[in-house]
């Protein structure tokens, strides 16, 4: 008997009909399953006719949903359908007139229970769930996958009975991953490495120290273990892995540097971490580091519940140690870490710790070595010593009266739409292909289009003006770095000698000459730095970023 068969047997003993054995119709039915592929909560824009794969709340019009109701779609599985979510599962859409009937904090893996539904089976794998025509109402409940506690839904009260709880326990035992066996780390052969060829290997061995040169000690005279050595891998504390060595659906320990941190809500602290090894499934299209660290070297870590509280003093630049973190794929497809529970069962040690003595920790030293190698690799060729100038051939004029700030002060300030001025050098520009800087610009709605566009896709107004769209990497006298977005009206005016902007060859040649002169300013001489206007803003993804403001570059 397989693992899945044994769980199916337990469910049948509880008088549960599994998905694969549903009859054609079943009135006053109950549905039990594990949530897979969870969608967001949405508001329906218009009247929708009842359709397949729908679990529908009662309305005044039979078989219809009135526009303005809330909805959420997801997929359910049980032990009878253990295959990939794209192969089998029951697709469901919940509808209700109140948003409070749908759990905002529901997660993939939660147990979902529905009472009083009519079930219709269509084809081999599809199943439709609709409101029971006799009771006129369906009720549901989400149970947290870890604690089996109901999620808060003020407008959907389902009183769970003993059978519901017993079934939930079986589904939890079936769906929860088994702690992995400890194996020696291996480097996957299909990883595409970013341009960091000079980064030292990511082995788990500690670099030689004077103590490593001591002759072997007899087995009956074992030397004491160093106080800062990592704990011995065990069932409750899996081996530490680099980002490169992680495997999806496995558990591991992790040490990384904090690139960004944000408290999303009272029980969720999200960290962006790096150990300067490549991520097999990066969040390339969803996150951009202010320090210009490529997303291929970043990994997101979500600290839940007590861990969010314990990590309140974690700041950008800290090094943290995570224990028993689960490696998973997010809904957007990138790899992330999830840390739940404040103590490791069986050891009573914290799962999240900030490393205080960073210079005494061999794992942190290896991260620092890879970081140094990374920045040496990515420094632009224009910054080679022979190409640098030590004279004032570039100066700027910044509008407004904003005071001079350091990059550290700007990055640590939480204010949005605030104007700053920074004294810094431009280390690099992106993209390197200057032709791709030129965009069409809509002054009415501040939207950017490709150069061949005739109309703005947002307001439909005709557009004829060009602007520039790029990014600068800034560095101040404290060696702090920040990425600065360049676009819009400020980008149009930053080179007074090159107005108007046009997608022609002579313009691109002149633009390249000005960019080369900006990049030739010696970053080792702060007296040559430029005053640059900066403005903070919030992106659609709720990330605080920075853009160029009111800065004109002049050349002697």
TrEMBL record:
InterPro entries (alphabetical): NA-bd_OB-fold, POT1, POT1PC
Location of region: Disordered: 183-234
Xref: PANTHER family: PROTECTION OF TELOMERES 1, PROTECTION OF TELOMERES PROTEIN 1
Annotated protein name in UniProt: Protection of telomeres protein 1 ssDNA-binding domain-containing protein
Pfam families listed in its UniProt record: POT1PC
One of the GO biological process terms: telomere capping
Biased composition (Pro residues): 207-233
GO cellular component, as recorded: nuclear telomere cap complex
Gene Ontology molecular functions: G-rich strand telomeric DNA binding; telomerase inhibitor activity
All residue ranges annotated as the Protection of telomeres protein 1 ssDNA-binding domain in the record: 244-377
Biased amino acid composition, Low complexity: 183-206
Keywords: Chromosome, DNA-binding, Nucleus, Telomere
Coiled coil location: none
Organism placement in taxonomy: Eukaryota, Fungi, Fungi incertae sedis, Mucoromycota, Mucoromycotina
Similarity comment text for this entry: Belongs to the telombin family.
Localization annotation: Chromosome, Telomere; Nucleus
Species annotation: Lichtheimia corymbifera JMRC:FSU:9682
